[in-house]
Amino acid sequence: MGLLVNDILQLEIMKDAMVVAGEDLVQEKEVQWVSAMEMPVESFVRKNEFVLTTAIGCGQNVKEFEKFVQDVIDSEASALAVALGRHIFEIPNEVIEKAHQNHLILIELPWELRFSDIIEEVMLQLNDVNYKESRRSEKVQQELLNLILTETGLTCISNYLYGCIEYPIVITDQIGTIQAQSKDAPNFLEYWRGYAVKGVLPQRKPTLRSSHDPMIQKIQSIYIDEYCILQLPVIQVSGNTLGYLFVILPSEVLLDQFLTQYIVNVLEHAVTTIALWFSRKNAVEEAKSILHDSFVKELTSGEFTSWDSANSRAEIVGYNLNLPYICLIGVPENLKKLFQKNNWDEMAYQQWVDSMIHYIKEEIYYAAQSLNKEVMITYQQEKLIVMIEISLENKKESVTNFLDLVDRRLRSLLPKVVISWGIGNYNEGVLGFKESYQNALTALNISRNKKGIGNRVMYENTRIDRILLTLFQNQEMKEIITATVEPLVEYNKQRNLDLIDTISTYNHYQGNVSKTAKALFLHRQSLLYRLRKIEELTGLSLVDPDDLFLLDLSIKTWKMGQ
After folding, report:
1. How far is it, in rounded angstroms, from Cα 356 to Cα 220?
2. Is 330 within a domain?
3. Do 310 and 456 belong together in one domain?
């Protein structure tokens, strides 16, 4: 606590001062400023200011004096000291009552006291307090720098800050993943990850504060359960946010009383120190990440021509290539929709996507560790490329168990995220990684075209689909297919009547009109009309096996080529 009103009243110069309102508050109200003020107050009085006045301009007009006092109250001043004897001879009871009701300390001063002498004495006290506060905060700054120079971890830094602030500390990266926490952190931290995924922590929208202190303006407050969480960004000189510092307060703590100049100074030194720690850590991790990502990319694109060159690079990044791997490619399909649904700031979209990919990769690593399997992951062109170790005796079971575990973990953490998976084959040799990647990419494209999003398809189960895809790539076949299917597509555009779905369902039920009508929720006559329209548009007969085969083949091949 800094200088209190009671400390000022104990000064020799204030021995004749008399408190007429708020006497019980003199041990609580802090003073940060002192000034002499007359009407009008406007915005010239600051919070926690000790105000001296002669009440000139009020005279014997009680209403004017009452308005003047109300303005001082609205300014959140600590105390109002009124010199009696020239412009006002006694403070009206109405004014004293107003001061009592609004928790303003009201003081009577003898006219003979010079304001300049009072201000000089108070300023000496304030300067002394500020000097001691400055020395305290400088000591904290020096200690934090020493922790950085000795390459101390963030946990030690958070515990040191806990000792300075006396409330639990949490330090996260820019997406809200906890990097360190002090002792005595509350139990609700086990739900922190869920809050981060939902965008509750860190808070993206600024909290408006009336303070002119630029440091206080950066502080955001989030209320969760019985806690008030103060959030400060850890910012580089370039302006990039590296992470966040959180102070966990009980919700009943008054922020204005907690955020003393000393606390604000400590927080400012803290975020500067943490920024240095993150800059050093990020430089190392970014270099490692680039090495890992580029290695997996080169591996799947077939840039290694020999086992020796691939193995030497693998050793550098900590991978073991002497194990059987299969490539999986996953695409998070609906991140943009989920982000827009929450009405978050579009400027934060890429950062949010990065956080989602981070969490997905974490779950993939966790699933691999749980199954005691090696894994290589990179995220390229909005695709997760995963090389997972398998058992050659039961390849299919290995992949299924792995993806089942990933899906269970993601359903718990990110229940609304939809991911499509393509699963490659196991291929031997250094170029087997490239072949497995291409297999997985083919399976992924077939899965999305044929089944839609959110499914998983194994390359070995796409033989028919690959034949159809190859047919579509033949120019002569493409012309036949287009000539057969195009009239149905155009009719759908003009009449909004999906004849392709109609004939696909008809073929699925092997030409059974009753079952087809029931599946499409149509009357029998409506279905027969559609079937006649298909024959009319395509020039093919649905009772001719060859025509029906051509139509079915054309539609399936056309879908593969989309």
Report:
1. 23
2. yes
3. yes
How many structural domains does the chain have? 4
Whether residues 308 and 449 fall in one domain: yes
Q: What is the pLDDT of residue 249?
A: 95
Grouping H, G, I as helix, E, B as strand and the rest as coil, residue 151 is: coil
CA-to-CA distance for 436 and 89, rounded, in angstroms? Answer: 95
231 bridge partner residues: 220, 246
Residue whose token pair is 């759908």: 492
137 in any annotated domain: no
Q: Which positions ≥6 away from 101 have C-beta within 8 Å?
A: none
CATH code of 549's domain = 1.10.10.2840
Q: Which residues of the chain have pLDDT under 70?
A: 1, 59, 206-212, 237
Query: What angle do helix axes 261-300 and 154-165 make, rounded to 10 degrees?
Result: 160
Six token digits for residue 44? 């010239």
**Residue 343: is it exposed, middle or buried by C-beta count within 10 angstroms (0-12/13-18/19+)?**
exposed
- Whole-number Å distance between alpha carbons of 465 and 556: 8
Q: Which range marks the domain in which residue 491 is found?
A: 469-561
Residue 270 maps to which CATH number?
3.30.450.30
- Angular region, 59: left φ>0, alpha ψ -120 to 50, beta rest: left
Last residue of a domain, one of 401, 428, 461: 461
d(CA 363, CA 413): 9
Given this model, what pLDDT does residue 40 score?
86
Q: What is the pLDDT of residue 515?
A: 94
d(CA 508, CA 352): 43
Burial class (CB in 10 A: 0-12, 13-18, 19+), 372: exposed
Structure tokens at 310: 């691939």
Q: What is the DSSP string of 223-253?
A: EETTEEEEEEEEE-TTS-EEEEEEEEEETTS
pLDDT at 272: 93
What's the gap between Cα 143 and its chain centre? 31
pLDDT in tens, 315-331: 999 999 999 999 999 99
Q: Which of 412, 436, 461 is the last residue of a domain?
A: 461
CA 442, CA 474: separation in Å to the nearest integer? 17
- Any idea which residue has 């080169």 for tokens? 298
Q: Let me know if residue 140 belongs to a domain.
A: no
Looking at the structure, tell me whether residues 398 and 322 fall in a common domain. Answer: yes
pLDDT value, residue 212: 64
pLDDT at 220: 92
**What sign has the CA pseudo-torsion 478, 481, 484, 485?**
negative
CA angle 463, 328, 285 (to 5 degrees): 160
Which CATH number is 59's domain given? 3.40.1390.20
pLDDT at position 206 is 65
The values of phi and psi at residue 23, to 5°, are -60, -30
